[in-house]
Amino acid sequence: MYATSALTPQLSASHSLSSNLSQPSHPLSLGFSFTFRETWKVFSPPTTSFSAQRVSLPHFSTLRVSATSQASPASTEASKVSSLPSEMKAWVYGEYGGVDVLKFENKVSVPELKEDQVLVKVVAAALNPVDFKRRQGKFKNTDSPLPTVPGYDVAGVVVKVGSQVKEFKEGDEVYGDIHEKALDGPKQSGSLAEYTAVEEKLLAPKPKNLGFAEAASLPLAIETAYEGLERTGFSSGKSILVLNGAGGVGSLVIQLAKQVFGASRVAATSSSGKLDFLKSLGADLAIDYTKENIEDLSEKFDVVYDAIGQCDKAVKVVKEGGSVVALTGAVTPPGFRFVVTSNGAVLKKLNPYLDSGKVKAVIDPKGLFPFSQVVEAFSYLETNRAKGKVVIHPIP
């Protein structure tokens, strides 16, 4: 694939976005009048290998970022950040709403560090349904104050460490979900920016055999998949049905159930065109939900993992004494609501499976967007047609 795109915003503003920040020392301040143009060239063969160049940075030295499905030495990426700017490019929204509230800003303050945090130069970030639900104001009562730089998943390079950080150093390649609580007071400054600050405990070393885009696609989804299975007491020899098995979380539940937990039987639902995809992930039974009602299945399962919001149907196909994990929608007993708590230790535990290829990152064939096309990426994600994850890469 070869594509070029240009972003030429004409902005004129003089205002401050710092008044509502929970951390007054970290203002997202804006005051500027400029014409900015950036050009992207993206080369992508059929695999996830690719490279990209960003050819203009107006306020500090040019960075060139490349990533492939094979790991690059930490020093390669780290050496490209020769000095830290005080301002960065980021996507920001100052009100809740649709994709139209997202704005590209050129002068957002780089977040300062707490003692237990590291500053990450973002190379890739992924989008999740929680990103657009948060932007739509679905949980505004527990959200941090606006304005917000969105983004949960990140993969990048450590460029600065807090005084209490022990595990990571400058130059380390890391990945993680930067918000410990997905819905309860997430950070104002997320991963859809050139830099993000994140607690050491939420990060893990990037798997050596994964590129940055692949690594960024994993954290929130794989932690949700793994911790949800743990909550049910899932173990070797048990059976599971995964609703929405082709989605970001579902595609990983299938793999983890088989490769990590030792499931005896994995069934999963999807639309007609994704059945072979489910089987490629390890599903023993692929169910076309457009043609078959799961309530009519003759077999029942030890666990049903509901990643789509059909708990009322899920409880009808779970064995007596079994569990139904509900990520979204109304909960019907014995189903239970599950919201992940981010934990870098889970990623470290799963890194060997990722490095060996037993568990694979899944990026939608159309789901790789450059930083200039965040609005288009959200629009695509919100069609609910993505197979796997939508990833933003490269981030300049």
From TrEMBL:
Keywords: NAD, Oxidoreductase. Belongs to the zinc-containing alcohol dehydrogenase family. Quinone oxidoreductase subfamily. It comes from the Eukaryota. The keyword Transmembrane does not apply. InterPro entries: ADH-like_N, AOR-like, ER, GroES-like_sf, NAD(P)-bd_dom_sf, Quin_OxRdtase/zeta-crystal_CS. Residues 97-392 form the Enoyl reductase (ER) domain. It holds the Pfam family ADH_zinc_N_2. This is Enoyl reductase (ER) domain-containing protein. One of its GO terms (molecular function) is oxidoreductase activity, acting on the CH-CH group of donors, NAD or NADP as acceptor.
